[in-house]
Structures are given as C-alpha cells and as structure tokens.
Amino acid sequence: MVTISEALRIIDEQKINLKSQTLPLGESLGYALSKDTLSPFHVPEFDNSAMDGYALCGLYQEYRLVGEVAAGESKEVRLSDGEAVRIFTGAKVPHATSAVMMQEKTSVESGTLFLDEMPRIGQNIRKRGGQLSEGQLVFGKGHVLAPPSLSLMGSLGLEHLEVFSKPRVNIITTGNELVPPGQPKAEGQIYESNSYAIAGVLQQFGFQHQHKMQIKDDLEATKKGIKNALESCDVLLVSGGISVGDYDFVRPALEANGVDELFYKVLQKPGKPLYFGRRTNQFVFALPGNPASSLTCFYMYVLPLLQKFSGYGKVGLPTYQFPLSHAYENNFGRPSFLKAHVFNGKVEILDGQGSSMIQSMALGNALAFVDDGIQLKEGDMVDCKLIS
Ligand code: AMP
Ligand code: MG
C-alpha cells in the first residue's frame, strides 16, 4: 500500500520514450509541442492601425484629408505635415504617421478633418514587433495547444506543427456479472457502465481509446485478454477484478504477461485497490470496479500519466481552494476524494459518498480532498479539482 503522494510520485518519475509527429495546424488542438517554437518574423510585421479612423501627420486638431488606406493594401501612401488619410483597423500606417484618431472623435467638412481632441504621439498605432520579435521564443517544448495557441501559430503562418504523439489506449472490463446496456439480463447481473465513463473521460481530455474488450472472471481468459490488448496499445486500462475477491484475476494475469507492478493499493477513499504497472514503454492501470472509484482514480492518476505520455509540460487537474458551504468531518478512516459541487465560489460536499455511487458524482462537478479524521467548519478552505 502506498500513500496518495507516493503513488503520484511514482507516476511522475516514469521515464517515457516520447514520439513526435507532424500535424496540420487544424488538427493539433490538445497536443503538446515537441520542440521550441521561435517567431519567424516580427508580430505585427508592420506598424498598423488599431482603429477605424484617420492616420495623422503631426499633432493638430485640423488636417488636409489626402486619401485612404484599407487593411491588406500594399500601396505606399506618403503623408506630409498637416495631412491625414482615412485608415481602417489592421491597415499599414503610412511612414510619417504620428497617431491615429478614432473616427468617432472626428468630423469632415469639404476635405478638412477636424478632431474633437488633441491626438497623442503613437496613439492607436500597433507597433511592429509589439507582440513578438523575430527569433523570440513563442512557446517552449511541452506547451499544450489550446485555441489561443492555435490562433498565434496560425498568425505565424505555420501550417504544420511538430507535436508529441498521444498514447494509444485500450480498455478491458472484467466481471461475470456484467451485461452490455440494451441486452436482457438475468437475476444477479448488472449493466456494464464503467467503460462508458472511461471512454467519455478519455474523450473529455482529448484522448481516444482504440479497442474496448469485455472479459470473464477467469484466470486464463484474463491472461489472454490482457495479452491481446497489450499488442496494440501504450496504455491499458482495466476495470474491476483487482480487489481481493476469489474472482479477482487481473493482478496475476498482468504478472503472467510480464507487467511489472509499480504500486498496488493506495491509502485513499474511494479507489483503494488501484494497480499501476509497466512493461517497457507500456503502462497498465487496473482500476477498481466500483464506478465512482474507477473514475476518481482516472482523474487523479490515469490523467497525469496520459498527459505525461503526450509530452505535456504540466500534468493533472489543477487544484483550487474553495470555502466549504457547511461543516464536514471525514470519518471514513482514509484520506478522501469527495464528490462535491462547486457553486458561487463555495464548495458543498455531497451526500452519497459510497464507492459505487455515481449519481452524486454525476450531479457534482468537483472532487474535494479532505484528509483522514479532519473536522472542517463552514468557511474552511478545501482543495478541489474541477472535473466538469
Ligand atoms: P470488482 O472490482 O470487480 O470487485 O467490482 C467491484 C464492484 O463494481 C462490483 O459491484 C461490480 O459489479 C462493479 N463493477 C465492476 N465492473 C463494472 C463495470 N464495468 N460497470 C459497472 N459496474 C462494475
Ligand atoms: Mg469483478
């Protein structure tokens, strides 16, 4: 048995051979850059107008209006002292421009431009290199591409990006009692639901699973299922069969397949019977079968490993602190990740903390961490991870 921080440290310490690939810009959302990106030119490349208005030469309140420059135009406009041109947002400002005045503060009468106020030098001009200089570091290796990053890479004209590949994931569910939704079930059987949560949470964080397999609680079948699954994945997620029951065959079956155990059992609630193992550059998590345990273990342990395997510079869900909306005491006897709801800047710990109870997790949006034996008052700060 390891503590939560030991389990996280073991995951963090894994050395992984990362692979790189080239992806079109439009398909790189959620990937991490596999090399530093330097700006190929100054951004912006030329001084341009931040407003629709008038480019002014000299600082006056009256100008001779001598022409117009639209965005995307390349013709050189020459301005002399006391002259102005009509200009539009993003258009290159003429060489001798002192300032741009927004059109709302101007009026024009028979070829003369009048300003409502005195302009200031440099006003409303976006300077060449104001955002980035040529050769400057834009993003370091490991930067994860969110929508603003895609926008910036696009503005640099980069059509393809070098990114780290993401791991291929397979899912195995175990349990004689499990029947797929939509099929008839006999007395004592239940519907299989974990694989939907696991596939969903993979998708939520930008990962995909390739194959999903269901195997019976039988040592040989489990060995064979794991052998097959490991043929085509980097990360294998097994649900159930990892506890101490007579029908829990996952641990010996992993061992028989040459997977080395890195930890088994974490001092936590839910999700105590969590297993993590490795075979060369492949990783296996055996998640406890109880639905809430399995998902909690995903958020806490599987997600950081998948992100590390994808070359992310930072991994795991960030922790935020919120004040409790009520008093709470953790008397579960273990450090606990509690199903919780963050709302209006406060956190409520929900009823229904059992490992099998998924409705409370579904209605909440966070996991709140409360250490064993801790008594909290209303307003005490609690560490929370937002899960939706
Ligand atoms: P296990 O870890 O295999 O002992 O399973 C613990 C509990 O979780 C049992 O009540 C199982 O029936 C339930 N369970 C295991 N796997 C699943 C699954 N894929 N979907 C829904 N419930 C499951
Ligand atoms: Mg089972």
Q: What is the rounded Rg?
A: 30 Å
- CATH H-level superfamily of the largest domain: MoaB/Mog-like domain
Spatial strand sequence of the major β-sheet? 7-4-6-5-9-8
Counting H and I runs of at least 4 residues, what is the number of helices? 7
Domain count? 4
Bound molecules: adenosine monophosphate, magnesium ion
Strand content: 25-35%
Average of pLDDT: 97
Helicity level, as a percent range? Answer: 10-25%
Class per helix and strand makeup: alpha+beta
End-to-end Cα distance, whole Å, is 30 Å
Low-confidence stretches: none
Largest sheet: 6 strands, mixed
Coarse shape: elongated
**CATH architecture verdict of the largest domain:** 3-Layer(aba) Sandwich
Q: Which CATH top level class of the largest domain fits? A: Alpha Beta
CATH topology of the largest domain: Molybdenum Cofactor Biosythetic Enzyme, Chain A
* Strands, total number: 27
